[in-house]
Write a structure and sequence with these properties.
- The complex is a heterodimer.
- Chain A is about 75% helix and about 0% strand.
- Chain A is mainly alpha-helical.
- In chain A, helix 1 crosses helix 13, helix 2 packs across helix 3 and helix 3 crosses helix 12.
- Chain A is globular and about 75 Å long.
- Chain B has one domain: MetI-like (MetI-like fold).
- The longest helix of chain B has about 35 residues.
- The radius of gyration of chain B is 23 Å and the shape is globular.
- Chain B has 14 helices and no strands.
- The two termini of chain B are about 35 Å apart.
- Chain B is mainly alpha-helical.
- Helices cover about 80% and strands about 0% of the residues of chain B.
- The chains are: A mainly alpha, B mainly alpha.
Chain lengths: ~300, ~280
Amino acid sequence: MNVYRPGPAALVITTALMIFLLAPLIAIVPISLTPFEYLAMPRGELSLRHYRTLVEDPAWGASILLSLRVAVVSSIVATAFATAFGLGVWYLQPRFAGLLVGFVLLPMVVPPVVSAVTLYFLVTWISRIFEPFGYDTWIGVALCHVVMVTPFAVVIILVALSQVDRRMEMAARGLGASLWRTTVSVVLPNIRFGIASAAFLSFVLSWEEIAVTLFVTSVEAITLPRRVWMGLRDNVDPAVAAISVVLTVLTVAVILARMMARGAARGVREEATAEDAAPTGEVVPNVPLRRRLGLRGAWSRKETL
Amino acid sequence: MIWTRRGGGYLALVAPLPIFLALAYGLPFLGVAGWSLTLPEPGLAQYARVFTDPIVQGVLVRTLRICAVVTIATTVAAYALAYVWVRGSPRQRTFVEFCILVPFWISTLTRAFGWLVLLYNRGLVNSWLQALGAIDAPLTMVRNEFGVIVGMTHFLIPFAVFPIASAMRHVDERVLLASRGMGASRLRTFWSVFLPMTMPGIFGAGLIVFVFSLGFFITPAILGGGRSVMAAEFVYVQLFQTANWGLAAAISVVLVAIVAVLVALLFRLTRVEKLVG
């Protein structure tokens, strides 16, 4: 298949766009090596002082630990919520499933700034009742992140479930397994890659969440993105460049590893493309929402690993 | 069905998430809507401000204008990328995929910062242009609308590539070969066959990008530098600097209303897309 190849014009335009996509990520590398205290290109000598700042300044370390804690907790809670909900919808197939799924996906569709105002309302209200869980606390941040990332986890879980053969569940039930037993021994093992993807995506989304975090924290719970934001808003601190480079290198390494692992399994993948394009079941009402995230792609990629 | 789907077990699975979101998201949103009607005093005064106050109007018009430009730029760029991603050789596809996925997984902040480094007055682009002698004085490319548009387009391209690529995968290659076989040039084949067949993907991607860009906060705040304020940043300022909670809430409600209309449109389009596909 695929004999109809793009012509030279398309390739030239695409190359320019690829440079456009990567340029800002490459540009931060030399800046992070600057010997100056301000944002300037290094002239002649290079310095690792801004990387040293990341290690030596306890503020950066504290922010990294805080972000890790928030991301791990929100990822676990979001994945648990999403898995339970997905299973419930898949088993029951209620008539109002579309409405129900639409409702839980709301935080993904509503403009981030509106979600931020809404969650600001929530945490300030919690603050009045029980301060340690409210505004500017790590639990408050984690709570808001759970609201924001759970819809993404739900999409992945529903896509994973839509690929499971219902007859397996019926067979298990017919053979006398309880709901609990069916879920644990039959359905969950079949969607384990989906669950892993959901947990991973929730972790990443929470780890880099900034729009909502800005509204619900101030001086105590400073997550890593919030510290970067502070470094960007006032005098641009080159340490921001250093941490950005570290995170970018990590991301690129993970993506390359995944692409290479998939390259090894490319034969299988090509076979799977046709079925990939087939409609994936009736439970997920809005195809574009997951298409726009490339989630279907991300998920099937996981599956071939 | 042999057994009935009743009992606490199923409900215990389905119910927690909607209940949680109703409490942690639905109710607070109603609270925000309440603010818009009661702060500083009960009435529709804040909504009147949204629709008449020249400052708010200016922000809204600027937001819509930037979003429109960003939507067009993003969709066109994403179309070219998706084309090579779907129809290219395996090697080309790998390169394109890498260039789409890397920015997709990197945080908004890092990407906005990268553009700041490239575009500010003593940034890379200005230094190179000056070294080449193309310009005498540095061009102002950040802290204005240009920077915001570049940064937002960069952020949104991956989101637009996925729906367009999905529409392109549905195009039967034999149709293209038939068009060529009947004597149409490559350009004609693209223009009269391929492009019309992928229109639903283009509209879907455009709507998604527009909806996403409406509530954008981080990129405009960093690359606009407080000069070309968009709706989201305006809300932030109203909430935390001017302490005008009622106005912030009213703008939030209006934004939700706009997005609701656009999403309804998207759903109608999806059905069309299903018919076509």
